[in-house]
User: What shape does this take?
Amino acid sequence: MYHNRHSSPHKQQGSMLVIAIFIIVVISLLAASLSRILSSTADSVANEVYSAKAYYAADSGMEFAIYQVLNNASLSTSECDTFPDAGSLSFVLTNEVGLENCQVQISCQIIPIDANNNQFYLNSTGTCDGGKIVAQHSVEAEVKL
Assistant: This one.
């Protein structure tokens, strides 16, 4: 009868410990990488949300600017006098649902075409501040009267 000394139970007692530690390390690495992926996904979604909010803030400001130019066209077409502060207007959107922590900066510049016609160059910039994320979008338009 042949007796193998290498396969005795006393020599194999530490192998399960090494396998268990290896499995724990592999599972820990998988959990850490999954956590990192979820964190970057959450940041990406937050960036997209604030970017969309900034775009819609700028778009709302542009609609307001076009309204101001067209509504006051019969009163004065010589300058952007519907905008205070020498052709610029700034306001904060605090009470608007979905546009909290956003502000809009609108600028207006007049471009004379001829004696009776003017073209207004409008620029609206929406900025939304979400703490560590700040998004900004600009919208431009030209209105010819």
Observations:
- Residues 40 and 46 are 10 Å apart (CA to CA).
- The helical segments are 15-71, 84-87.
- The chain has a mean pLDDT of 79.
- The chain has one domain: 15-144.
